[in-house]
Structure formats: C-alpha cells, structure tokens
Amino acid sequence: MKYLALALLITMSCPPIYNWSDALVDMAPQGRGADVAREFVEFLGRASIKADARTQVFFDVLGKNLTRFQIEKLYESEHLRDLPEGFKGAAFYGRQGAAHYHLGLTDSDYDRVRLKEPGEFFTQMGLKKLDEKGPDGTLFTGTIASKAVFKEFSHKNAAALLESGLKVMDPENIKKIQCLKDRQTRHIQNESLQMVHEFYKAFPQSTDILKQYVFIYHSLVRRYRHEGREYTRSHFRAMFLMDKLRADYPAVAAHLDALRNFYRIDITLKNPQGNILHTLSFDSKDDFFSVYTYTAGGQVIPRDDQGVPIFEQAFYPTELKQASFTAQIDTLVNVYGLKFISQGIVSRIEYDLSPEKGRLELSLVDFPKTQVTGRLGSVVPAWVIELAIPQNMGSIVDAFFGTMVRSRDGKGAFMALEWDTSAEQNVGFGFFAQSDFLDNFYVRFAAAAANYQLRTTGQARQEASDFIGKFFAALIADLTLYSVQNGGAAPAQTAEASSN
Asked: In 135-183, where do the E strands start and end?
C-alpha cells in the first residue's frame, strides 16, 4: 500500500514530460509514427530472398570477380549485357511473394521500369571501360541506379524522428524526466542513466534482447549553460558485450574478434560556416559506434572547434528545405600491421526538399595523400604474401582515390538518395551512385583484405539472421503498442513510475 501511495505521489508531482514513445508517434502526422515505423521494419524484415537459377549463377560470377577484383574479366563476361550510353551490366527486379522475396535478372532498363506496389525493387549496375589510360591501370566508370516502393516511410519521417528525439534530450525535459525515477533508479545521480532507463521502458521487448549484447549505459546526456542559455551535450556510445555474444552467438563473436583493430572511421559534419553539427565514429575496437551532438528544444546546435555553442546557427531538422554541409572524414585501416591512414577526406552533402520530393547527395571533393606506415606482422595469411606488396604502396593508393575525386569532370564520385512522396501510401525511393575508378594494385589488395577480414562463415550468417529475426519481431511488437491502427497510443509518461 505504501508503494502505491508513493507512486501516486510521484505521478502527481511530475510535470508534463516528452518521452521516447512521444518521439516515436510524432514522426508522422496524426500520431501515426508507430504505424509508419512498423511498416518500414516489416519491409526490412521480410522473408528470405529467393533467386532463380540464372540469377544465382550471375551472383556467383559477380562475387568471384569482385572478391578477386578482376574488373577486366568481369567487364568481358558473357553474363553482362549492353546497357545505354556505352555501359555493360545487369539489372534485377524484386517483389514480395507469399513465402519469399523473389529476386531475378531482367532485361528491362532502368528508365522503362515503373514500380507500383510497396515492396517492389529494381536495380541496374553498369561498367564502362574508358579510352584513356590511368597510372598503373585501366580506367572504368561504375554506376548503380536503384528504385523501390515503400508504403509511407520517407525522408520526412526520418527528419521528424531526429527532431523529436532531440526534443527528448532538451535540457528542461531531462530535468523533468528525473521525476520518473523508480525503485531501480531513484538512488542514481547520473541523469543520463534515467534517459537510457526510460528508453528501455518505452520499448521493452526489443531492448530486452538488445541490452543483452549491446551496452549503452556509458552514454552521456548532460545539461550545460552558455551566456545564460541552457543546452544539452549528447554523447551516445555503444559497445558489444562480447562474453554474452560468445556464449549465445559464438560464430558472430569470432567474426567480431577477428575484426578488432581493423578499422576506425571518424566523421565530422559541418555547416557552411565551418562549425560542427555532429561527430560520428565507427570503430572495430571498444565502442563500435558513437555520435556527439549539441541540442535544445529539438534543434541541432552547431559548435565551434573549441566546443562553444553557436545558438544563432541552430536549426530544426524538419524545417530544412535546402542545405549544404561538409563532412570531414579521417580513416585508419590496419591490415596485419600495415596501416593506411587518410586524414582530412572531404565530402560535400547537398539536401534539397520540395513539397513532393527530397534528395540527399554526397560527393567526394578531396582525398589527401594516404600515409602508409608500419609493416606486416610475423604471422600473416597466404594471400598477403602472394600479393607481394610494392614499396610505392602510398602512391598507388593516391592514384586510385585521385581518380575518384576527378570523376564526373571534376565533380567527384557521388551517391544520392531520393524520395518521391507524391503518392502518400506508395513512397518512391531511389539510390544512385557513380564513380570513375582505377583498376590497379590497390583495388586488388583492398578487395583481398575486405574478403578475408570482412567475410563471414555460414554459421555466422545464420546466427546473425536468427538474431535479426528475433529482434525485428520484438521491435514490431513494441511498435504495435503505440500503433493507431491497433488502438494504441503513447502512454502518459508521468504515470510510468507507478508500478516499478
């Protein structure tokens, strides 16, 4: 009885709170965010892909040539057909069947295909051999053009979810959320832990699975004040719980162990004024992902190189119509002691939004000289020895990436995402990429490294598939809690402390 009385007292004393479930439902109009998210997750988690015999033969040939990076041999293969504008390649069409997602080769061309039903997919890959000769290799242009139909999920939902998630981390809201502390967390002083705890409570089934294998409690969400204005510094971090993975998914754990120290990628996203919006890191050691952001009231707040917030440049993600950003990228790849260090890679990001369309384009602007340091260890695989690594490896790497920067008459290699929301229940999605590349020693070395370092065993793929299937099923169950179609709604968060 005393616990009920205490819970009622806590409930009555808590002000209105914006919690993680509110962020979910607000990612679509009329509070339909959970429905849109569930449809998208169901699309991602569809039944296994089934390819016909002809298509499977092509995938085998493609995989064999790409693994060995035999571009010239692939280009001359009988499995590629003539495409428009002098390219040779192949195209695939996919659709959802009763038990499988069916994927097969097609003789149709990209511009002539019209997709109508959610789940339909088409992609076309092409290669063109260029007349000019590159340094130490043959020049090619590679392209990919893909299209698909989703139900409702688009860039608008992604922007709304980002903004509503930032609203949860508003400094005033963080203070309010501390009202929800229960018997498990009432003695914990760190405000960040209560934020994580609330996230787990909002999505209990999926996070019950996830938190067994991924640790995020060392993430930090802290309130700061500058020139009389309060803001939040959010540093989300995630690391694998390897002991638990080894016990339940040993092949996946073995694959992650083999990747340790293989790579690190740091990305700094800046606005046109040169101030920092986000910093992201991907690492094969310790935290596999982290992101650092300043925010208040749902806005992204830029910061200068000294960490001082620039409030006058803050913006709401949903209000962006046209924007240009710069991504500065630093990478480290360690292949058995031979380290490739590239610092200051520059990519331009253009975002363009109209009432019925959206486009996000990334293009490579600059790739400074790569530093090759270290030396191969005493124990290396046979494939490394067989490649007979040359002394001028650095210049070979620079020639390869220099070719990518000069692609498209100096505009740089690019990739783009497009959305067409003119039909609200049948959102069109497109993916495009194009680059010139040099078929030289570096690409054969990189392909071999990727093949031996990144490839997974059949058991690891099965374990990963089993985990993803379980997690998606649990996530769909969580999203259904807040689904308008199922009569659900985001719970009143001030009552969350009542029974814990």
From this structure: 137-150
Question: Residue for token digits 């069916």?
Answer: 102
Q: Whole domain around residue 102: which residue ranges?
A: 19-149+461-491
Over residues 19-58, the pLDDT tens digits come to 999 999 999 999 999 999 999 998 877 656 788 888 888 8
Q: Please write the tens of the pLDDT for every residue from 337-383.
A: 778 899 999 999 999 998 889 999 999 999 999 888 876 655 555 55
Q: Are strands 49-51 and 101-106 parallel, antiparallel or unpaired?
A: parallel
What does the DSSP 8-state code read for residue 472?
H
Q: Are strands 88-96 and 121-134 parallel, antiparallel or unpaired?
A: antiparallel
CA atoms within 13 A on the CB side of 26: 18
Q: Sorting pLDDT into bands at 50, 70 and 90, what band is 451?
A: low
Residue 476 resides in a domain: yes
DSSP secondary structure letter of residue 423: S
Residue pLDDT, tens place only, 389-410: 666 777 878 888 888 898 998 8
The residue-averaged pLDDT of 7-16 equals 62
**pLDDT of the residue at 493:** 42
- CA neighbor of 229 nearest in space, from 294, 167, 292: 294
User: Is residue 400 domain-resident?
Assistant: no
**DSSP E strand stretches across 189-321:** 214-215, 220-226, 229-240, 263-270, 276-283, 287-296, 299-300
Joined together, the tokens standing for residue 344 give 């200051």
Please report the pLDDT score of residue 182 as a whole number. Answer: 76
Q: What is the average per-residue pLDDT within 385-392?
A: 59
Radius of gyration of the chain measured on its C-alpha atoms:
25
Considering the domain boundaries, does residue 129 fall inside one?
Answer: yes
Closest CA to 489 of 103, 57, 26: 26
Integer Cα distance of 217 and 107 in angstroms:
51
Q: How many domains does the chain have?
A: 1
3-state class percentages of the chain: helix first, strand second, coil last, to nearest 5: 40, 35, 30
DSSP 365-379: EE-PPPEEEE---SS
| 469, part of any domain | yes
Answer yes or no: are the C-beta atoms of 453 and 262 closer than 8 Å.
yes
